[in-house]
Fold this sequence. Notes:
By secondary structure, this protein is mainly α. The protein has helices at residues 2-25, 27-32, 39-61, 68-87, 96-115. Helix 1 packs antiparallel against helix 3 (39-61), helix 1 packs antiparallel against helix 5 and helix 4 (68-87) runs antiparallel to helix 5 (96-115).
Amino acid sequence: xxxxxxxxxxxxxxxxxxxxxxxxxxxxxxxxxxxxxxxxxxxxxxxxxxxxxxxxxxxxxxxxxxxxxxxxxxxxxxxxxxxxxxxxxxxxxxxxxxxxxxxxxxxxxxxxxxxxx
Length: 117
């Protein structure tokens, strides 16, 4: 079961890399006001959601402690990110503040994962 948990952690990291990488590739366009949510951002957020839920289930099945408050906050932040990216995914350009908010929330989610112990 530990191997399966490690596989899902790896997939979760790939999801965050896709979401953050998609954001970072659009930074120059954001400065010009032409940034858009690329498919990699949507797929990364969905990957994070699926693998995160799987990780919680696998850890609870192994009787590992899970901080439900931390998971709840991370889930709430991810749902906001996912909602924004999903709704605006077909727009030719996204407003700077909205695009920047998705990047900020993504970084916040990373720091919650790393620093909240």
